[in-house]
Amino acid sequence: MSEKRQLSQTGTATTSLLLPLAIGVALILLNAYWIALVSGIHHSLNPAYASLFITPIVNLFFGVMLNTLLKRIRPQLALNRGQLLLVYQMLVMLCVVSGHNPMDFILGILAHPFWFATFENEYSTLFHRYIPSWFTVQDKSALTGFFEGNSTLYTAKHLSAWIGPTLLWSFVTFVLFFILMCFNSIQRLQWSERERLSYPIAQLPIEMTIPRFFSRRLLWLGIGICAAVELLNGLHYLYPPMPGVPLKIPDFGSKIFTTKPWSAIGWLPLYFYPWVIGLTFFVPLELSFSVWFFFLFTKFQLILGSIGGWKSLPGFPYYNQQGIGAWLTLGILILWVSRKHLKTVLTMALKPSDGDGTATLRKEPFQYRTALLGILIGIGILVFIFQHAGMSVGILLAFLFLYFLMSIAITYTRAAVGVPYHEVIWTHPQLMLVSVLGVRRIGAGNLTLFSFLYPYVRDNVSHPMPSQLEGFKIAERAPVSQRKMAIAMIVALLVATPVSFWAYLHLIYQHGAVRTEGYIIGIGFETFERMLLPWLQGTHTTDSTGLSFTAFASLFTLGLMFLRRQFIWFPFHPAGYALGLSAGMVWVWSAVYVGWFIKAVLLKFGGLRLYRRAAPFFVGVILGDFLTGTFWSLVGAVFEIPVYRVWY
């Protein structure tokens, strides 16, 4: 009798996972095409390019609405809260592989080196011999339709040219992202239950699945006001005589700061994205303050350089080198704080667990031993692939070490700060290695193969590791088994990566990469013309000046961390400094400031009670912006016209 009951429970558990997996896979197929269309082709929206992705939230919104209806008319067909959130997280995994980053970048880099090779740029002489034939598409005739359009993917030549690179880079992407999931499995307990990080990005999907969440009046007020503003702006874009609400002032800095030394500030726009303002409302005040303050601090450095006349330092203030120092130091500090936990992880992985240890491991996505083996086996697979391609093992391991360290720092920062957008751009392991070793020690072959890893480190906006960790936090609150969440994310990655390749290639062969408004062409020139060629043609040695700024940023980060631990009132967070150094913060700093200011005023004059009462309104602002942005991108796709973009 007990065996029958156990089998029955096992069957129920399997069914509860199989249904959201099936729905998630179906939605991945549909949404992969949608993201490729609006992000890669029409560029009317970036639905998979932020901390909080638009596509999963919009799908969850309509999924909750449909589920509410099913509960009334067909309760047996309705999903429970955990199943809804499993589907949501599967779509999040789609977003970390599709969209502007990295799918735009991967395809652009794979297609560039042989199509754009000319006698003048000397591609064939400088680096073609270092690219294995199985790494990318080398047949120009197979790339004609890719760039010029009016063609189809479904010819023998095109399919045979792309099947190898698609499978290779789908596999590399999965292995790399799976390693990050193993790191998350090891760190989850430390960050979620011991340090109790706030996970602001995960709060919205968690709240959206609470019963009667959509019955709140302030929520619909926020949706209505934001939707009205963005609908008006969309109509103003299509019909300029109609009035609009000026949420974007791209030339603010150039109009205000016209004389020296203030003109050194450079481009300083004001973009008041409603969803960024709404999301910042849920970020702790000292953290959101640090983000916009340190962004302005970087502008102050430019003014200081103009006053000092430091023309002998052409790279001043060396933002990228400072960023490397800040992020790597932050990663080391995070691991140092976790040292007791990591020691426990290693002990439990190497020795049989006692009763308490077994109970702890049952709550984790993977057994600690499994996670450590996953990391080692994954790294071994990457070493095998890239060594076979011609990269030296030492250089690849150095790259992976720096990549994983920065990934840990970015993940911790988003879990703690919840910044809506973290474009850690042009701050990547390749720059650090070239600065330390110089190009001759690294070698032309390694530098060339570095280029194909550039999509994974170029700007870190849609970084997979923070999204995976937030998935585990969602599972904790749903509640859903951590292992079920891990299975859902693994299945999603296995499906989403090749499907995203298909969706992009299908559409690009129809429309042509040269006629799309995305960055598929641009990323190739950035990677090979602006990065690789100067390295191969130059004599770059150890960059002592750049490394001195890296050291300064490292010491500054250490100082900020020390002061925060010594003084509770100290308002500056080292993660804010690291984020402020990124050039990408220029897009959102003003919206982060507005969100911080509104929250500060509400807390000062109304206290925690008023803040909690106002929270549904700002959730509504986020939803209203996402829903309206999706509507305008749908209009643009249907009528094939440029439309107003609510984001980016």
What can you see in these coordinates?
The protein has one domain (15-639). Helix content is 71%, strand content 1%. It is built from 26 helices and two strands. The protein has a two-stranded antiparallel sheet with strand order 1-2.
Q: Strand order across the biggest sheet?
A: 1-2
Query: Low-confidence spans: pLDDT under 50, at least 5 residues?
Result: 1-13
The ordered H/E elements are HHHHHHHHHEHEHHHHHHHHHHHHHHHH
Task: Tell me what portion of residues adopts beta-strand conformation.
Answer: under 5%
Mean pLDDT: 91
Helix content: over 70%
| Spatial shape | globular
The total of helices stands at 26
Please summarize the sheet with the most strands: 2 strands, antiparallel
Topology:
Blueprint: H1 2-41, H2 54-73, H3 81-97, H4 100-115, H5 123-126, H6 140-148, H7 156-194, H8 200-208, H9 217-238, E1 248-249, H10 252-256, E2 270-271, H11 274-280, H12 285-308, H13 319-337, H14 339-350, H15 355-362, H16 368-389, H17 393-417, H18 429-437, H19 439-442, H20 444-450, H21 464-477, H22 482-511, H23 520-537, H24 544-566, H25 574-580, H26 589-639
Antiparallel strand pairs: 1-2
Helix pairs in contact: 1-3, 1-22, 2-3, 2-26, 3-21, 3-22, 4-23, 6-22, 7-16, 7-21, 7-22, 8-21, 9-26, 11-26, 12-25, 12-26, 13-17, 13-24, 13-25, 14-16, 16-17, 17-21, 21-22, 24-25
